[in-house]
Amino acid sequence: MPAYHHPLASKLPTVGTTIFTVMSRLAAEHHAINLSQGFPDFDCAPELRALLAKYVNAGFNQYAPMAGILPLREAIAAKVEALYGTSYDPEHEVTVVPGATYAIFTAVAALVRPGDEVLLFEPAYDSYAPAVEVAGARPQYVQLRYPDYSIDWDAVQRAITPRTRMMIINTPNNPTATVLSGEDLRMLEGILRATGIVVVSDEVYEHIVFDGHRHQSVASFPGLAERSIVVSSFGKTYHVTGWKVGYALAPRELMAEFRKVHQFNAFVTNSPVQYALAEYMQNRDAYLSLAAFYQKKRDYFLEGVGASRFRPLPSRGTFFQNLCYDAVSDERDTDLAIRLTRERGIASIPVSVFYREPPAHRVLRFCFAKSEDTLARGAEILCRL
Ligand code: PMP
Ligand code: GLN
Fold first, then answer.
1. Pocket residues: Cβ below 6 A from ligand 1
2. CB 219 within 8 A of CB 80
């Protein structure tokens, strides 16, 4: 292939390959236990696999409607109303999309203009800033307070300028494993009341909240729901990260703009997967039991690392456990994560990659969406360090 010779002003000059790809590849190369990238090492429910096969074999293999098949939009709206008390109209306010990452990118592309500012919290999930930059806008950051990763709402108030067009929030949060409280969302509601700022609320871990707490969705707060695009993903909820199907919810004025971009990008989402999910969603227990399922895994992993020199930070939601390694090493987290993968056979994610400038604290993120055998072997390695 001949090379491209012309000047190429990259729209994302500092972006390389994502840390998830880098660490999973390194783990595979070194046959390491992979607790880095967030995905289950166990399969989804056999019923869900059978439903997908059923719809593929029954010929549901052509384009779905642009917004998603109606039975799935209805099932999503019914679930959201039952859990968060807000009614979204499946016709105009619910859209099925190829994953949450896509939904976030689409929301930014549809609503953010060059020169706008978008408020992010740091550490920030890695896809947020590039989505903002491709749109020609500027990310502005508010730091979460270490070690509890709480939000300083006064700092948020101060960070808002007349150029702030959007804010992206994420609860339960990746990579910090924290959750926002009802009080947090009331603070946010108050701060945004007099503004036209749109909130993109990444709630892909909505069903994975621990210790008896409830997920607080922006959908439950009228002053937030009226300005928010809520994003979720079936990948986390049903152990099918490879299916890449999620959804967005928003008031119809915002959703109309979202769909304008969606219809010229993916246009539609995989049809048979949507039919399978619509039928599977009738089983409420599958998502209502998810928190207990993952809490057990969190506790199993915590028990396993209890005798190690790593210090666990609280994991209140998601399927991630952060471990502070102050007592283990003074290496940079990026160096340590690579060395542990190569030399000790365990892969994790260095949390500093979610910051622009590496912070002083030393934390690695471990994914516990794994079988007990994998978690036990991982914990055993950590105990020897
Ligand atoms: N947001 C967060 C916070 C995530 O952790 C992930 C992936 N795990 C996504 C979005 C992307 O979800 P999807 O695979 O549906 O694009
Ligand atoms: N969200 C997953 C994680 O945080 C990975 C998704 C991806 O690889 N882009 O590990």
1. 38, 99-101, 125, 170, 174, 202, 204, 233, 235, 241, 244, 246
2. yes
Mean pLDDT of the chain: 97
Query: Measuring from atom 1 of ligand 2, which residue has the nearest CA?
Result: 38
In the chain, DSSP assigns E strands to 33-34, 94-97, 117-122, 138-143, 164-170, 198-202, 228-233, 246-249, 311-312, 320-324, 346-347, 349-350, 363-367
Q: Residues 7-47: pLDDT tens digits?
A: 989 999 989 888 999 999 999 999 999 999 999 999 999 99
How many whole angstroms from its chain centre is CA 245?
13
Contact 190, 156 (CB under 8 A): no
Q: What is the mean pLDDT of residues 268-272?
A: 98
176: its two tokens: 């910090």
DSSP-assigned states of every residue in 74-101: HHHHHHHHHHHS----TTTTEEEES-HH
Q: What is the pLDDT of residues 55-68, one digit of tens each?
A: 999 999 999 999 99
> 99 alpha carbon to ligand 2 midpoint, in Å?
12
Which of 104, 207, 236 for a ligand 1 pocket mutation test, highest count of atoms within 8 Å of Cβ?
A: 236
77/93 Cα distance (integer angstroms): 9
Q: Give the pLDDT confidence of 133-165 residue by residue, as tens digits.
A: 999 999 999 999 999 999 999 999 999 999 999
CB atoms within 10 A of CB 120: 21
